[in-house]
Structures are given as C-alpha cells and as structure tokens.
Specification:
Blueprint: E1 3-15, E2 18-23, E3 38-45, E4 48-55, E5 66-71, H1 77-85, E6 91-98, E7 111-117, H2 121-134, E8 138-145, H3 154-163, E9 168-174, E10 186-188, H4 193-202, E11 207-212, H5 215-227, E12 235-237, E13 255-261, E14 264-270, H6 276-282, E15 300-305, E16 308-310, E17 324-326, E18 330-332, E19 338-341
Helix pairs in contact: 4-5
Length: 342
C-alpha cells in the first residue's frame, strides 16, 4: 500500500454542510486513478489515528487537482474535523486510490443510469464527467435530495445539462422542498419503484446502472429490473458501510483472540457485534485499513488457529486464501483464534 503526502490547493464550499478539498498533484509523479474510485485520508485527532475513504469528485485527465467531497455526518469525528479545521496549504497523508466502482467499457451498452442520494453523488459525478467527455452513451442521473439548497454540484450539473443536452438528462427528487417547479424532470418525494420502472421502459437498452445511496434504493432498482426481465449483471453499487443481518450473529459470542501485529502479540476481547478491526482500533492498535466494507484487502490477516466468520460482504471474495480474512468484517467463532497481520 503506497502512501502520499498531498497539499491542499483549494477548498470549495458546495452546500452549508459539504466541502470539496482540492489537492495539488505531486510535481514529479502524478497519482493515477479511475473515475469512481476513492482516496483514503489519514488524520490524527486527539491523539488517535483515523482513516476514512472519500470518493473522488474530480475526473482523470479533465481536472488538474485531486478532489474529494466531504459532507458532515452528525456525530462524525472525521467529517466534522475536516469541515471545521482543514485549510488551504495543509498537508494531509493519503493512501493510494482504490475501488472497483468504475465504468468498464462494453460495446453492447447504449445507456448508463446513475442513481444517487445526497453525498452519494460524489463518485457518480466523477464518472458522469468522464463518460460525457470520452464517450457517446446516453446518460441519466436520478438524484434525490431534501431540497434545492442541499444539492451538491448543482451549478456544475446544470452546466453539463446545457453542454450535453442531447444525451445527458437529470431527474431530481426533493423530499422536503416546497418551492420548486414540478415538471417532467423534477419530482416531489423520494425515488420510487413506479418512477424506476417507467424510466427503465423509456431508456435505450441494454443499460448499466451505478448506485450510490441507501440499501432501500439499491433494492428498489434491482426489484424493478427483475420485474421487467432485465439482467442484474449490469448493476453496480458503492457501499461505505456494512449491512449487518442479526441472523448472521446467532453463533457469535464475546471471545478473546490473539492478534500478532508488528511482531507483538496482543490479547483482544471481541464483543459480540463488533468486528476484530473495530476492537483493535478501540484499544489503540493502528492496524492498516481503508474501506471498512470488505471491498479492499488493506486489513487482511492470516489465521494461524481457530475459526472466523466474515459477515456483510456485498460480493464473495475469491482472491483470498483459505486462511486469509478481512478483519473489518470478521468475527471469531472459537476461543482459540490466533491471527497475524503481515
């Protein structure tokens, strides 16, 4: 895992609770990334290290800076710290770009539909810019917000709509806005199944779908596609939290494990419901990690003895050896668990 030190070149105010940090590219060797990927930022706050992944809102070969857009999360230690304290010329340590939430060229695809809610627009915005400049596909953005004032990248989206009016359509949903023009592309309420099915019937097929929003949105889109007899193979989603099913924890109990990190053995109590990574960080072990959703391999550990169970993975990980586990979503099943971090 490569680390970089980047200087803040500019800070843009997007809404009253969202900013975009624009990092200056390194002078000698530019950081390469793909539209839709994320950058992992590292901070030390009150003596503790925090690591958080944030999607790029910039686009390679289009934007000169490396941009990440960050919305305040109620009670969020890092998001509030960034919005309140980061300033121009600050130097921040980051990890190399990661993520597979990216567009992959397919000659059979005629339309791409992006589905987002709130700050979920960030990776979608990066990909939309890339496709509009470098492709000729028909593109639809279905974007849900509370109100007009909470729309991130509002002016930039309006500019793209005008520039690419022949093939870029934005469908806006407002759950709490009272004053706006309700027309064929502005809707009251939340993105719903009736709208999804109507849109899918009207667009050019086959299509690809990229979703960055709550689990309910993802389920609505998948159910609508299935109802219309369309394949789910072209549905991709970005998840920044693990969805935990209580049924998966029936055989999970409080257990003590042995974790070898940097040559030292550490006894850690893993409380039911908390992952090994969560408990290790809580006692001050600065383990390597990034996405915290089981999509990358930064927190991978090797099991020397005992049994673990991974919970909440969005898709199976076929790249792991039988004794390799991702600690962000791993829970001990036995009392003799011993793990080594390389």
């Amino acid at each position: 895992m490569k680390n970089y030190t980047l200087k803040v070149h500019e800070i843009k105010i997007e809404t009253n609770d969202t900013i975009t940090i624009c990092f200056k590219q390194p002078g000698l060797k530019k950081i390469k990334y793909l539209a839709g990927q994320y950058l992992t930022l590292q901070f030390r706050i009150n003596g503790r290290r925090y690591i958080r992944p944030y999607s790029f809102s910039s686009t390679p070969l289009i934007d000169s800076t490396l941009d990440v857009t960050i919305k305040r999360v109620p009670g969020g230690v890092v998001s509030n710290y960034i919005n309140d304290t980061v300033k121009v010329d600050d130097v921040i340590e980051v990890q190399e770009p990661l993520g597979d939430f990216v567009f992959k060229s397919d000659e059979s695809i005629r339309s791409v539909i992006f589905w987002g809610v709130g700050s979920g627009i960030t990776p979608l915005f990066s990909m939309i810019k890339d496709l509009l400049v470098n492709n000729s596909l028909n593109i639809h953005l279905v974007y849900g917000n509370k109100s007009n004032s909470s729309v991130i990248f509002k002016e930039k989206l309006e500019e793209l709509k005008m520039t690419y009016s022949d093939r870029f359509k934005v469908h806006s949903f407002y759950s709490k806005e009272e004053f706006f023009i309700e027309d064929s592309h502005n809707y009251r309420g939340r993105i719903n199944a009736d709208f999804v099915e109507k849109l899918l019937q009207d667009i050019k097929s086959p299509s690809q779908h990229f979703i960055c929003g709550p689990i309910g949105l993802k389920n609505t889109i998948k159910e609508s596609l299935t109802k219309l007899g369309q394949s789910l193979d072209n549905v991709f989603s970005e998840d920044f939290e693990i969805v935990k099913n209580p049924e998966d924890f029936k055989d999970i109990y409080n257990r003590e494990i042995l974790l070898n990190f940097q040559g030292f053995d550490n006894k850690i109590t893993i409380n039911k419901g908390n992952s090994i990574l969560e408990e290790a960080l809580e006692i001050g072990l600065e383990l390597p990690y990034s996405c915290q959703t089981g999509n990358c391999s930064t927190c991978k550990g090797t099991v020397l003895s005992g049994e673990l169970k991974m919970i909440g993975l969005e898709k199976p990980r076929t790249d792991l050896a039988n004794n390799e586990y991702l600690l962000c979503c791993s829970y001990p099943l036995t009392d003799n668990v011993s793990i080594k971090i390389q």
